[in-house]
Amino acid sequence: MLAKTLRDQGRSLLAWSLSLVVLVAMYAAVWPAVRDQPSMGDFIDQMPEAFRSMFATSGADMSTPAGYIQVELLSFMGPIAVLVYAIGAGARSIGGEEDRHTMDLLLSNPVGRGRVVLDKFLAMVLGTFLLAAVMGASLVLEGKFVDLELPADKVAATMAHLALLGVVFGALALALSAGTGKTGLSRGVPAALAVFAYIVNALAPLVDAFDRIQKVSPFFQYIAHDPLRTGVAWDGVAVSAATVAVLVALAVVGFRRRDVAA
Fold first, then answer.
1. Nearest 5°: CA angle at 195, between 233 and 95?
2. Which of 41, 70, 100, 258 is most buried, by the most CB atoms less than 10 A from its CB?
3. What does the alpha-carbon distance between residue 141 and residue 24 come to, in Å, rounded to a whole number?
4. Residue closest to 227 by CA, chosen among 95, 118, 102, 75
5. Which pTM value belongs to this model?
């Protein structure tokens, strides 16, 4: 079942991978112009603090490769790409089968419902980590052509955190899909919560209410430790992994207890 799910996603993953390669190439091509434009740093410093926080630009030095990539790719477009894929894959995992009226055929195989959920989850995880790996490899390899030098180990750490961010919200989509069978709900709720979690983490230094809950935001586990400079933050990894484990357990329980539409 896992292999079939991955085969079904093959063309989609290829298209996503090529898109990410092109996206990184675009940012790499712009880097020389940004590096040679000292006024860019002054422009960012003049932004309102709230705006700088929203785009993770507070304290970032756009004249350095790490600062540039953090602002231009890792704060917004990179997470959006990974989240769109992971949430979509999680929502389609169970609800998509019911929408296509293939669930009865799927469950006619000699496998339990728990196995169905776990295989669908593993397919989403592998796809998410694959896309993060493609983005990371593109950063390292394409960056060499334009003097955008980034340490491979720190890029790998950042991509691991980015993939975990996607898996957290993908697991939430999976839990909703397994528990309700509704793909629209399974996409909409995680997407809305992802936006809220992003805002909480970004504006926590400015809003007392957000500051008190910042550390539960998956975006805090993803970027607050600055993995592009410091490497893997194992406490953040542990929190994300625990969150995913709880959500997958809820998905299994929800799917086992539900009457499934054929």
1. 100
2. 70
3. 10
4. 75
5. 0.90
Range of the domain at 21: 2-257
Q: In 3D, which of 69, 251, 225 has the Cα closest to residue 168?
A: 251
At 34, list the tokens. Answer: 């940004």
Q: What token pair was written down for 119? A: 């295989």
* Amino acid at residue number 12: S
Looking at the domain assignment, is residue 19 inside a domain?
Answer: yes
Distance CA 155, CA 136 (A): 6
196 part of a folded domain? yes
The per-residue pLDDT of the chain, averaged, comes to 87
Which token pair is 248?
């997958």
Tokens of 166: 């996607």
**Reduced 3-state DSSP string for 13-81:** HHHHHHHHHHHHHHHHHHHHHHHCCCHHHHHHHCCCHHHHHHCCCCCCCCCCHHHHHHHHHHCCHHHHH
Q: Which residue has the tokens 């509704």?
A: 182
Q: Looking at the 3D structure of the chain, how many domains does it have?
A: 1
pLDDT reading at 238 higher than 70: yes
Range of lowest pLDDT (70-74, 121-125, 154-158, 202-206): 202-206
- Per the domain annotation, does 262 fall within a domain? no
Question: How many other C-beta atoms are found inside a 10 Å radius of the C-beta of residue 38?
Answer: 9
Asked if residue 117 is part of any domain, the answer here is: yes
Transcribe 169-237 into DSSP letters.
HHHHHHHHHHHH--HHHHHHHHHHHHHHHHHHHHHTTT-HHHHHHGGGSHHIIIIIT-HHHH---HHHH
